[in-house]
Amino acid sequence: MEKKYFLKMIQHLRVEEQVMLYGNLFETSSDEEEVCSFLQTEYQQESLTHPFQSPSFDGAAALWGARLIYNAAQLLLYRQNKPNDLIALFPDFQNEVTPSAIVSADLCLRFLPDVIAPLRLIDGEDQLIGILENHLKIWHFSAVKSELSFDALDFTLILSNPCIKRLYVDRVIEYKKLKLAFHPSLKPLVQASLGMYADVFWNNFKTELLINE
Amino acid sequence: MAKNATDNLTFFVLVNADEKECLGGIRDWLNLSVGFEGNDIWVKGFDYAQINSLEIKSIPFKSIFYTNGDSRKLFPQGSLLPQRAIPALLWTPMERALPVTLPSLNHNYFGIKDKAAISLERSETEREAVAMYVYMDELWNYIETAPAIRLQALQWVIVDHDHAFIIGKPLLPVHGEVYWRQNDFFIPAGYDFDLPGTTDFINTKINIDGSKWIVWNADGSYFTIDKEMLSLLSLSSFRLSLNSFK
To answer: Is it the case that residue A149 has pLDDT exceeding 80?
Structure first.
């Protein structure tokens, strides 16, 4: 009987927002198709909340994100590999990074900061943290929640698409990330979103604005 | 300059005692005096303007006389021939001669049949608007591009095919009518009840168990919204509702 650990884990993650680990299994290829169709349904549901025109679903990106979170979560508990093998477990995304890919991969990648946090608690010098953060540097739409500090984030792709631009700004406001909100590319957008109610919605932002003026 | 001849004229009014009630309209003219002569009532002291006023003209069966200067004669109005001498009477001030009696309090009067219409009128007191009545299309246009944070605190319900009602603040930057709140009532901004004391009573009448919001129109009509029908306003809530609605 097939166990379908990958599918179960992703479904559980999406529905309950919890990670269930089933043993040290990095073999994901058997149920990739099902995971992909599951993520597509999830994406369709979630696109209801997307402002403007929702980008089309990018199955490859969604699956890549799912695999990444699956492997990262497994490594939280089961660590038998040598450090050099780790890089092989987390390959870069092969296709071009597009707005569709960013939003699709975000279905699973948004949980990555929550995986990195316990990793850092267990061992702050874990090599895995660096690998995962390197990915988040490119996919920083999924990393808004975390306190990761990146020097040079590339916003050209984010700003090119009205839907993802809106989603990004909403996320910055939701998690109240001051540092990101004052990023030169985002600051006018955040200001426009809060409008005259900045003190109601996010008083710290308003205060910071006044201080910096 | 010649003296105005009418300045010296004093007018008299003679009415039958049966018409006494008709003098009620001029009772507050304090320059008048009243004398009683048998079944007749004499009123004197009118000036030219008073004698031509509506109050006097509306008294039926009266005779108007005038007297000029020192002569003791009374001339009927419009006549140059005196008709009689000024009667020698005891003149008493008007308000003393015609006293007013107030009806005593009727303890059995409950005014059961009296009715008061509910109406709204313009109000000077300013209150904060907390609800909106908007066109669906306008809301749609805004909400598709709206920052999520602006929708977070709002609740909404579809009222009819074209309109939605949104409760919460800050209000959305969408064209629509705004309302302020008073308990379970939403009153159009700028209005208040004509009889503010009746609002609690009205509420217990039309909103017995307090499960509804009552939205008033400026003309005094209203519609109700079940409190349970409200849901949080979000893009997905809006789209799903619209899909099932259309």
So the answer is: no
Q: What is the pLDDT of residues A169-198, one digit of tens each?
A: 999 899 888 888 888 888 889 888 888 888
Tell me: cis bond preceding B170? Omega within 30 of 0 counts.
yes
Q: What is the DSSP letter of A208?
A: H
Q: Are B157 and B245 in contact (CB under 8 A)?
A: no
Strand ranges for B94-211 from DSSP E: 120-122, 129-135, 155-158, 163-167, 176-182, 185-188, 191-193
Q: What is the pLDDT of residue B157?
A: 92
Q: CA-CA distance, B149 to A201, in Å (whole number)?
A: 7
Question: What are the residue ranges spanned by the domains of chain A?
Answer: 1-143, 149-213
- Determine phi and psi for A127, rounding to 5 degrees: -65, -30
Could you give the C-alpha distances from B73 to A102, B38, B64, B81, B86, in angstroms and in order?
Answer: 113, 20, 13, 9, 6
Q: How far is A191 from chain B (nearest CA, A)?
A: 11
Alpha carbon of A170: minimum distance to chain B alpha carbons (Å): 6
Q: Can you tell me the distance from the alpha carbon of A62 to that of A156, in angstroms, rounded to the nearest whole number?
A: 21
Whole-complex ipTM: 0.78
Q: Is the pLDDT of residue A161 over 70?
A: yes
What does the pLDDT read at residue A1?
45
Task: Show residues of chain B in contact with A49, CB under 8 Å.
Answer: 234-236
d(CA B24, CA B39): 18
- Closest-CA distance of chain B to residue A189, Å: 10
Q: Does B234 touch chain A (CB under 8 A)?
A: yes
d(CA A24, CA A20): 12
CB contact (8 A) between residue A193 and residue B144: no
Among A48, A193, A202, the residue with its CB nearest the CB of B235 is A48
Nearest by CB to A170, from B149, B236, B239: name it. Answer: B149
Backbone angles phi, psi at B223, to 5 degrees: -135, 160
Q: What would the mean pLDDT of A33-48 be, rounded to a whole number?
A: 90
The two structure tokens encoding residue A210: 């006044």
What single string gives the DSSP state of each residue in B64-122? EEEEETT--EEEETT-SS--EEPP----EEHHHHS---PPPP-TT---TT------EEE
The dihedrals phi and psi of B117, each to the nearest 5 degrees, come to -80, 140
